[in-house]
Design a protein that fits this description.
Elements (H helix, E strand, L loop, with lengths): L6 E5 L3 H13 L10 E6 L1 H13 L6 E5 L15 H7 L1 E5 L2 E7 L4 E6 L2 E6 L5 E7 L2 E9 L1 E5 L7 H4 L11 E7 L10 E4 L4 E6 L6 E5 L2 E3 L2 E8 L5 E5 L5 H7 L5
C-alpha cells in the first residue's frame, strides 16, 4: 500500500509553477486538501510558508512535500516531474515546531501569531528602537538600542537570522537564536543561543517616540508595546524531503558556505 495514497496539489500563481501543475495533473490523480494524506506544493519558500500557515490555521498535520519553482527554495526539493510517487515513498520526514508570538500593541490590542522561521521586531522610523529583553521571567538586558531583534527556530536560522549574522542551528538542536539586527548599544553583543523551552519577552521602550513593528514570518503588527515568544509544541508540522536533499543536512552544510 502506498505511503500517501491520496495527494493534494497546490501551485504558486507564477507561470513556472502553473505549468508544472498542469504537467503533474496530466500524470496523476489528485484530491482536495481536506481529503489528502499529503500535499505537494509547487513554488518557492514563500509559497510553502503560506501553505504551512494555512495548515496551522486549520490545525492540520498534513505532511508537505515542496518542489522548487521559485527563487531560492531552501525548504523545497528539486523540481522533477518524473518518479513523484517513488520519491514520496523514499522521502524523509522532518517535524518543524513553530513559534507562538503573543503581541500587544500600544493601543492594548492583543494578537497570537505562529511563526515557522522567525519572529522579528523592526523599527518603523529613522529613530533606533530601544528594547528591554526578558528570558524566563527575568531581565537579561535593560536596553538594546538597535534596528530590531529576532527569535529564530532551527528551520528559520538560515533565513533572516543568518542575514543578521545570527548562528545556524542544526535542525535537531532544540535551540532558538536570539539575534540583534544592527545593534548600536551594546555594540559588541552578538545575540544568544537559548534552549527552545525558554520564553523570551521583548518590551518596547519609548514606544511613542520609537515605534516598532512585529513580524511573524509574513504577517506584520505595527506599533507594538511587547511580544512574548515561545515554542508551540502542540502544533508541529511535517515536511518531506528526498533523502539526498534532506533539510537537516542542508542546514548543517550551510555553515561551510563561503
Amino acid at each position: 500500500m502506498s505511503r500517501f495514497p491520496r495527494l493534494a496539489l497546490l501551485a504558486a500563481p507564477g507561470e513556472p509553477a502553473r505549468d508544472a501543475e498542469k504537467l503533474l495533473r496530466e500524470r496523476h490523480e489528485f484530491v482536495g486538501l481536506d481529503d489528502a494524506d499529503a500535499v505537494i506544493a509547487l513554488g518557492g519558500d514563500g509559497f510553502l510558508l503560506q501553505l504551512l500557515h494555512r495548515l496551522l490555521e486549520d490545525r492540520r498535520t498534513l505532511p508537505a512535500y515542496g518542489m522548487n519553482l521559485g527563487t531560492i527554495g531552501f525548504l523545497m526539493n528539486n523540481w522533477q516531474p518524473d518518479g513523484l510517487i517513488d520519491r514520496l515513498e523514499r522521502a524523509k520526514s522532518f517535524s518543524v515546531t513553530p513559534l507562538a508570538a503573543t503581541i500587544e500593541t500600544t493601543s492594548g490590542q492583543k494578537f497570537t501569531l505562529p511563526a515557522i522561521n522567525e519572529v522579528s521586531l523592526l523599527r518603523e522610523t529613522r529613530q533606533a528602537a530601544k528594547i528591554e529583553i526578558w528570558v524566563n521571567g527575568r531581565v537579561v538586558m535593560d536596553e538594546l538600542i538597535c534596528d530590531g531583534v529576532l527569535v529564530a527556530t532551527p528551520a528559520g536560522s538560515t533565513a533572516y537570522n543568518l542575514s543578521a549574522n545570527g548562528p545556524i542551528l542544526p535542525l535537531d538542536s532544540a535551540l532558538l537564536a536570539l539575534t540583534p539586527i544592527s545593534p548600536f548599544r551594546p555594540r559588541r553583543w552578538k545575540g544568544a543561543i537559548l534552549p527552545d523551552r525558554y520564553q523570551v519577552k521583548l518590551n518596547i521602550l519609548e514606544s511613542a517616540k520609537r515605534p516598532v513593528s512585529a513580524v511573524a514570518d509574513q504577517r506584520e503588527i505595527r506599533d507594538i508595546s511587547s511580544v512574548e515568544v515561545s515554542l508551540d509544541r502542540n502544533r508541529a508540522l511535517t515536511l518531506l524531503f528526498d533523502p539526498e536533499h534532506a533539510l537537516d543536512d542542508r542546514i548543517a552544510m550551510e555553515q561551510f558556505v563561503t
